[in-house]
Design a protein that fits this description.
Oligomer: single chain
Distance between the termini: 192 Å
Radius of gyration: 49 Å
Strand order of the largest sheet: 4-3-6-7
Number of strands: 22
Length: 390
Amino acid sequence: MRDRRKAADLRQQGAGSRIAMRVVWLALCLTPVSRVLPAEQDADLPIKNLRMEPETRRLTWDLNGNVSEIKCFINSQEITQAVNRSFCEFYVLPLCAVSNFTVASSQAPAFSVWTRYPPPAEGNPEAAAQRLGCWVHGVDFLTCSWEAGRAAPRDLQYHLTYEMQECPRYEVDVRGTRVRCHFAGVSRLGGHIQVLVNGSSRGASIPCSERTVELADVERLTVPNITGTCNKSYSIMEWKVSSHFNHRFTYELEIQKGTDPPYTEKPRRNYYVLPNPGNYAVRLRVQLYFRRTWSEWGAPQRFDCDVGDDGHFRDWLTSSLILLGSLLSLGLGVALCGRYSLLRRLFPPIPHMKDPISDNLQSSKVVAWEASRASGEDCQVAEVQVLGET
C-alpha cells in the first residue's frame, strides 16, 4: 500500500511539474523580453538583429541557429507566422501608438524577443486628436471626425492625411479648430485606409492619432426607394440597395393597411409580394448581413391599389371613346365629300359662252354653242301649223 501511495505521489508531482513548465513557457512567450541582451545571452538566441522595416511593413531578423517555427505577436496578441523563418509581414503598421512586437517560438530551443515600434513621440498625448472615427454614407462619401485634445493649445490646428494625401474638405468647431473631414468617391480608396491626424502648434509638439478603417465595416447604408405595381389582388414591391463594399443584406418592411395597426415582414430578397393590399403605406430599413445594427427607417411610401377591375374598365372605356371619336370624324369627312359630289351631279354648273371675237379661245370663259353637236342638254323642236281659229 505504501508503495502504491508513493507511486501516486510521484505521478502527481510529475504532472504538476509539467503544468508548471507550460505556465513558464506561456509567460515566456507573452511577456516581452528586451532584445537588448548581454552579448553571451544574445549569442545563444536562434535569431539576432531584430528590426522593423516600415517601408515593407516587415519585422525581420537574422537567423542564428536552427528553429522550426517562429510566430509574431503585437502586444501579446498572435498576428502571423514567420515567412521562411526570416520575417513577419503585417497588414498595417501603427504610426502613432507605440506597440510591442514580439518574436517567439514554442519549439526547442524556445525563445521570445521583442522590440517597440514606432519610437515614442514627443509632446503631451492629451493634446492629440481624441475619439477619431470614420464612416461611409450616401454610397460614395466618407466622413471622419475627432475632438480637440483637452490640453490642445489655442493655436493648435489638426491635419488629416490618408495614403499621403491631405483631406480635401474640413469642418471646424466654434474655436476654428478642424474637427471633421469629408471625402467623395470612396470606391477608389480600396477596402481599407489608414487615417492619420497630426497637430501643429507654434509652441508645442503634438502627438498624432491614427485609425485603420475597414470601409465595409463602417458603412451606414442608404435606404432605397420602393417601386411597385398593384391591383386589388396583389402588390409587387421592389428595391435595390447600392454599396461599393457590401453585397449581402437583410431587410425589414413595416406595412400598414388602411387604418389597421402596422406590422413587419422580413423578406429574404429585395422584393415582396403583398396579397389583397388595398390602400397601404410601407417603409423599409436595411441591415448588413453580418451585423446587428439596422439602418434608419426610410420615408413612408403610399400605394393606392383599391382600383382592380374598375380601373381597367375606365382605361378600356377611355380607349374605346377615343377610337369611336376617331371613326366618327372619319365618317363625317367621308359623308361631307360624298354630299358635295352628289350636289355637283344634281346641279351641274351652267356652261359659259365662248367669245368668237377673242383670239384666245382656250382661256376664254365664253363657250359657243354648236348646233351640229348633240348633247344631253339639246331639245328637239317640232313644227306646229295653225290652221285656223275656232
